[in-house]
Write a structure and sequence with these properties.
Length: about 475
């Protein structure tokens, strides 16, 4: 017989073992295994270590200025003014171009250097009016958002029976039922990275088996009946069919109804279509380097957003910490040896269009790029840096994050992939980083009407601005160039 006391001890022991296990996992993930760290003694000379630690007082100055003194609250103030003035900033809209002009002007007012924009041609996609209506077994409006680059429906819409599946595998096993139907995908949300394939490929997979349209549950772990949009792409050689996201709640309801053997019929209306080719712009500002101005450290985020919500989190916060970090360094008269360049990308949401254009236009210059940073996963409580780099670079960054104790952000995570707009350069072997942060509920709000200023926190914005400014400053000022991967 197990006594109550033994049971309690067992439970406590189990909890302790689990806690220690989880902690050990977090620590090894955060700082790399002990082996990797000890290798840093081979990669870094004592003098380089000393050089890095000599930036401690400068980090202190930056943090104090941004988190406590004059800079306190300025990122939130600048961002909220911007968001309240322009709202969402969809690629191809006049609103986005007005927002870009505004940032150009703010950059000049703040005495940033080499302030300019660079043109980016954009094939526009227009959502138009859209709706989904449940017709059978009862009539109900279903809040929805068409997915990026979807084709539209005829004006009267598409009315068809709905085939509900939970996975691509289930669709394959029931492919004979798909002909002439609207296929609704209701996958379980595992993680954004794992589940987003249902957004990008729903239309193509359903069309392969003769479906007339596709619907998905929104790609989010949490919902208060808000649909989430995002990009999708059609495979070559399949018929293009309209595709849209329903709310999680409505997708679940349709699945339950269908599981009971009842027929589900939906009318889907979408005016979605391609518009003109328009010109947007990447926005650039710099702090020119004092000794090697041709060498560059980049900090970036994207100014455009989806056409729903306010784009405060995606990616207003990321753009504004990148911009205000430069403003604060300039105000503090901290000019590093190399140039720090802030880039506010355009048209990220519609396929990294601004970044791709910049990649093409700046091919000749990138041998001088030392390090590239991007914030596009929210600006929550920072832990440190999430980076892509070679071994020696990793050791340098491990030393750098030690200096962020005043921000409580001394962790780092070495990844294969960080960021979205900066991917092309990372793939070319240029080292880079994004924020390592709490990432609180990012995908609750992402690409939805819920992405508003209320998601942004002034204190976290200050901390991230300081972390961004300090990282960029140190890497742009070190005597030696940051090692390539
Ligand atoms: Zn984004």
């Amino acid at each position: 017989m197990i006594t109550k006391r033994t049971k309690t001890i067992c439970i406590i022991t189990a909890i302790l073992v689990m806690t220690v296990g989880i902690l050990a996992f977090i620590v090894t993930r955060a700082i790399g295994s002990e082996n990797d760290m000890s290798k840093c003694d081979n990669f870094l000379s004592e003098s380089l270590k000393q050089e890095i630690s000599s930036y401690g007082p400068i980090v202190h100055t930056i943090v104090k200025a941004i988190v406590e003194n004059d800079g306190k609250g300025t990122t939130y103030k600048e961002l909220s003014t911007f968001i309240d003035t322009f709202g969402n900033r969809y690629a191809g809209s006049e609103n986005l171009e007005n927002a870009i002009d505004y940032m150009l002007n703010r950059s000049i007012i703040k005495n940033l250097e080499n302030v300019h924009t660079e043109d980016v041609p954009i094939q526009t996609w227009i959502r138009g009016q859209e709706s989904a209506t449940l017709l059978q077994p009862r009539r109900q409006n279903l809040p929805m958002l068409g997915l990026g680059l979807s084709i539209g429906t005829p004006p009267e819409g598409i009315t068809a029976e709905v085939l509900v599946v939970t996975s691509f595998d289930e669709l394959e096993s029931r492919k004979s039922e798909a002909l002439g139907k609207i296929v609704l995908f209701v996958p379980e949300y595992i993680s954004y990275g794992k589940t987003v394939i249902y957004r990008s490929k729903a239309a193509s997979r359903a069309a392969k088996h003769g479906a007339v349209a596709a619907l998905i549950r929104s790609i989010t772990p949490f919902s208060i009946r808000t649909p989430h949009t995002g990009m999708q792409s059609y495979d070559a050689n399949v018929t293009k069919i309209p595709v849209a996201a329903l709310t999680v709640e409505d997708a679940h309801m349709l699945k339950r109804i269908s599981d009971r053997g009842q027929k589900v019929v939906v009318n889907l209306k979408m005016e979605a279509h391609f518009g003109d080719i328009k010109t947007s712009r990447n926005t650039i500002a710099e702090l020119r380097g004092s000794e090697k101005p041709e060498k560059i450290v980049i900090i970036s985020g994207h100014l455009d957003s989806w056409d729903v919500g306010q784009g405060a989190m995606d990616d207003g916060g990321g753009a504004f910490i990148s911009w205000n970090a430069l403003v604060m360094l300039k105000a503090l008269n901290l000019r590093p040896r190399r140039t720090i360049r802030t880039i506010l990308w355009t048209a990220e949401e519609v396929g990294y269009v601004g970044a791709k254009q910049y990649y093409k236009d700046h091919k000749n210059e990138t041998q001088n790029w030392n390090f590239i940073m991007e914030s596009d996963e929210g600006t929550f409580t920072p832990y440190g840096l999430n980076y892509v780099s070679g071994n020696r670079g990793a050791c340098i960054l491990e030393e750098v994050v030690k200096l962020f104790a005043p921000l409580n952000a001394t962790s780092s995570l070495r990844s294969d992939y960080v960021g979205s707009d900066i991917t092309l350069w990372l793939m070319d072997g240029i080292p880079g980083a994004s924020l390592l942060q709490r990432n609180e509920n990012y995908f609750w709000f992402h690409h939805s009407p819920g992405d508003t200023m209320d998601v942004e926190d002034p204190v976290s914005l200050d901390k991230n601005t300081a972390l961004w400014a300090a990282t960029a400053y140190i890497l742009a000022d070190l005597k030696e160039d940051f090692p390539r991967n």
